[in-house]
Structures are given as C-alpha cells and as structure tokens.
Here is the input.
Amino acid sequence: MIPDIRPERDAIFLARCLLAWLVIFVFFRNLPGLDLGVTTLFCRDVATSSGLLCEGFAARKSGVAAAFRSLFYWIPVLAPLALLANIAWTGLRSGCADRETLRSKAILIGGFLLGPVLIVNGLLKTFSGRPRPHETIEFGGTLPFAAAGDFSGACIANCSFVSGEAASAGWLICLLPLLKGRFRTVLAAVIIDISIATPLLRVAMGGHYPSDVALGWIIGLASPAALSLLLIFRPTRISATLERAR
Here is the structure.
C-alpha cells in the first residue's frame, strides 16, 4: 500500500486478513485445549504428591527476556512518532510537495491508532474478560481459564484477548515498503525478526495465549489497509487536508 495507494489491492489484502483472522478465531474457539497445550510447553513444572504442577513461567523471571520484551515494546511505540516527525520535517522542507508519500505515512500512523491502540487496547483488552495464562489456575494463578472470544472471564481490565504488543508487532511489517537505501535489507530483516519474536516472547512469558498473539498480530497488520479504505468513503481525505495546509 506504500508508497502508492491502490484501493483494489488494499481491499484484497484486507479481505485475506479478515479471512485468516476468522479461521484462526474459529479454530481456537472450538479447540481451547490447544491454547492450554502450547502454553504448557513454556511452563515450569514442580513435582508434588499429586503429580506435576505448573509453578509459573521461567521467562517471566529472566532478566534477558525482560530486556528484550521492553525493547520489543518500545520500538513499535516510537516508530509512529518517528513517522510523525518525518512528516513534519518533510512538510517544512518541501512544502508537502509529495502528498501521496505523506498520505501513506499518515495512514500508517492512523492505522497504528486504529488497530493496536483503539481496537486492541481500547476495546478488546478492556472488555474481553480473558485472564492471562499466568493468572489462571492451570498455570499457578487464581482465575479460571477462558477460551478465546469467551468474554465471560474473570479478568477486569488489561485482559489477555488479544495481545497489544503482538498487534504492534504486526503493524511493524507495514513499514517495510518505506525502507530505502543500502541498509534496506538489514533493516527489513530486523523488523521481521522483531515482528515474529514479539508474540513468541509474550507466549513464553505467560502473558498471552497463542490465539491472543496470532489474532492481535493480524489486526495490527491489517489496520493501515482498513483505514486507507475507510478514508475513501469520507468526503475529506488526507490529501485534501494537506492541500489546504499548503
């Protein structure tokens, strides 16, 4: 979708993302044991008189894992701010001459606000009610397990469904078409690695179930395309706003 805006391509991409999201959701919704089974692989077991009991997640107490988690958290948060600064700098330097490129960057920022911020953190994580793995009885917590999309769990706020950090990591992939220059390949590899490692680390640390990170990742990936298509049906477009600002 960047640097040129193609509604047809965005529509096809968004449709594929929605289909993938629905398939993954239905799969985990009907097979909740898969979430538990995969999460158990990262759980630290201790021997008791009744057998093995999950005491917690070793990665949650690892300083290295915590450092990488902090790094992976802040990179997607700072990326929209960097884009915003670039838009301001480019506008002052060239007078918004390349409006389509500026529009593409603005849509990326708006996509981050729409997907990871509004849909994921503002709505799903607030009202889903799904406890995180480390909060559930099966993994040493006190709350009962809730399947993906159950919305009747005991979590009150900042719940597990879906992962905000995974959504931000999915959004990072949308930055790849912006990369230019001699270090483009290296930067692309770094972005892809972070985008994949972030959701894996959240599962390893007991912060989210596999369904949480998979569904959140897709929301972040699809959000710029969704916003781009929404703007087509609005009377005032970003390009028109930039034109008036000249």
